[in-house]
Design goal:
The protein is mostly beta strands. It has no helices and 14 strands. The model has no long low-confidence stretch (mean pLDDT about 80).
Length: about 210
Amino acid sequence: MGFDGMNCPNCGGELPATVLHAKMVACEYCESTVLLEDDALKTAGTKGVMAREPSLFALGRTLTYRRETFLPVGQARFSYAQGWWDEFWAVDGGGDGVWVSVDEGEIAVERPYDIGISLSPARLSLGANIALNGEQFTVTEADRATCTALRGEFPEALFVGQTYDYWHLFGPLGRLVTLEYSDGEFAASEGVWVDPYLIRSENAGA
């Protein structure tokens, strides 16, 4: 269920409704993030400050990559040891959600992924080989990130100030698996790095 026809419980502003299965939205009118739980709205925190940076990616602007289209509807900014990057929650042409990460020109498109096994962070040292769903992956990056700002809609609850450990795993045919660990649980996504020069904007967006 999305936020169609609903208002921010903090300021009363109208909440956007782009994704049918949104679980969280950042209010455009105040500093609140809002959760939808059991058909009720609840203020969850603040959306933080997100300095605008020149980018091909923007909320409401449809993009194409090869023959796929993506409509970004949520933007989360994360800080880590080397600086910061943005994660966009987007809807593809089939109506499914994807994560698009943008880090200084490096762009990856990933979809939610079931790793199929129980993992311990201790197994995920740099260079370690991990078997996921019958395929071998190698840990190529390990770091810690903190959410610093939120805009738009998301399929899950995110909070400014939330910190988690993450790993990038490189696999067959250039595939990428990202593992995130927070509050004792793993979340995973799987996809590929994409060529930014093949991404095209379809409209000016909202």
